[in-house]
Amino acid sequence: MRRLSAVAVLCLAAFLGAARCGEERRALASDAPQLKAGDYVAVSGDSITEQRLYSHYIEAYLLMCKPAPDLRVTQFGWGGETAGGFARRMENDVLRFKPAVATTCYGMNDGGSAPMTEGKGKGYHDAQKEIVEKMKKAGVRFIVVGSPGVVDADMFHKKPADAEMYNKTLAALRDIAKQVAEEEKVVFANVYDPMLDVMTKAKAKFGKAYHVGGSDGVHPDCNGHLVMAYAFLKALGCKGDIGTITVNVAENKAEATDGHKVLSCKDGTVEIESSRYPFCFYGDPTKTSSTRSVLEFLPFNEELNRFKLVVTGAGDGKVKVTWGTAAKEYPAADIAKGINLAAEFDDNPFSSPFKQVEIKISNQQNMEVTLVKTLIHGLPEYKKFLPDDAETVERLGAALVKKDQVARDESAASVGAVKHTLKIEAVR
């Protein structure tokens, strides 16, 4: 396809040929790559990635919710980076790790906090294509081109007019990222639209001081990063089926799907051992530092976090379910169709084990900042300074990659089986 300038692509998007674009989209949908057992995922981006929040949530989800077995993740964030900057460093800093899957999230710096221009759009477009082409050449099987997110409508420069201006630029960059994904037949992650939607709805409820784009307008808090993780997990093809526990209380029978094992079932009490966790959320549901605060505006539980309980044989009245220290009542007809335990019980038997794994992930991703930005990134300079010892430098690089592999494996190994009990009672 003949390459158009970035601005021309944006202006003529509606006229690019509906049939051709439709065919490309159908091809992308039918041939969409999926996460496979043992996949290693590289998460790259600018300072928002280097915050180690959305990358943390992605790793937590892939390790504990297990859309495929034995997944691993490294974050490669670099503050201040543009798509062009990443294209220049990626071969040394990222591709030497040999990821099977890679996500990128650039645009916030590419836009320069200013209105869109043709030159800016072309530079972003060409850099994004270069990134994808280099990844393909290196053997990356599953590539996700992420759009930038948004700046906060009230916090960016403390001027809503500036935020409106720059969000238009970021929307243009979003469209270019999508165009590159279509051209290269890889997957596009739309980070911008869910962030804008959640920001609009959350501010309507909590007020202008509640930020989704961060207190500085650019770097989100936990709430905004959960939205970003949602966008990338969807792009990675995660389906959200954590598991289903089916209980027939009249017959004292229970069964569970893969990742969960029924240990016993007697008089409405079901003991289960689970190797797959539901995603867990924490914090004050009104604060930006809480992942809980955006759940009513974001379909994370509905689309990515379904841990269902189905109860039959309970009669026509109400059924009380106790899980951990919390209990709730449901009409028997409703619970016979199934309830989502992950959405219904904020604090549950997985909350503490989930947090313990998160500590390991945080330690790992914190270490990766120094490992990548200081040690790995500096290897080419060592080769220049010590040309006769290039092989020694490469061995050092391999040892650093191995160091990260050990840390990734330790994070994964911290995901142990969780024993928990569901108590089901008829309400009289």
What key attributes describe this structure?
alpha/beta; 5-stranded parallel beta sheet; globular; 5-stranded antiparallel beta sheet; 428 residues; 18% strand; single chain; Rossmann fold
Describe this structure as you would to a colleague:
With 428 residues, the chain is an alpha/beta fold. The protein has a domain at 6-235: 3-Layer(aba) Sandwich (Rossmann fold). It is 45% helix and 18% strand. The strands form 3 sheets. Strands 2-1-3-4-5 form a 5-stranded parallel sheet, sandwiched between helices. It has a 5-stranded antiparallel sheet with strand order 8-9-14-11-12. Strand 3 (101-105), helix 6 (118-137) and strand 4 (142-146) form a beta-alpha-beta unit. Helix 4 (54-65) packs across helix 9 (222-235) and helix 13 packs antiparallel against helix 15. The longest helix is centred in the C-terminal third of the chain and has 26 residues, at 351-376. It is globular. It starts with 5 loop residues before the first helix and ends with a strand. The model is unreliable at 1-21 and 23-30 (pLDDT under 50).
- Architecture per CATH nomenclature, i.e. the level-2 architecture of the domain at 6-235: 3-Layer(aba) Sandwich
Query: How far apart are the first and last residues' alpha carbons, in Å?
Result: 69 Å
Shape: globular
CATH fold annotation of the domain at 6-235: Rossmann fold
Q: Quick recap of the structure?
A:
The protein has helices at residues 6-11, 18-30, 47-50, 54-65, 83-93, 118-137, 160-184, 192-206, 222-235, 300-304, 332-337, 341-344, 351-376, 379-385, 390-413; strands at 40-45, 72-75, 101-105, 142-146, 187-189, 241-248, 253-256, 260-266, 269-274, 306-312, 318-323, 326-331, 339-340, 418-427. It has 428 residues and is of the alpha/beta class.
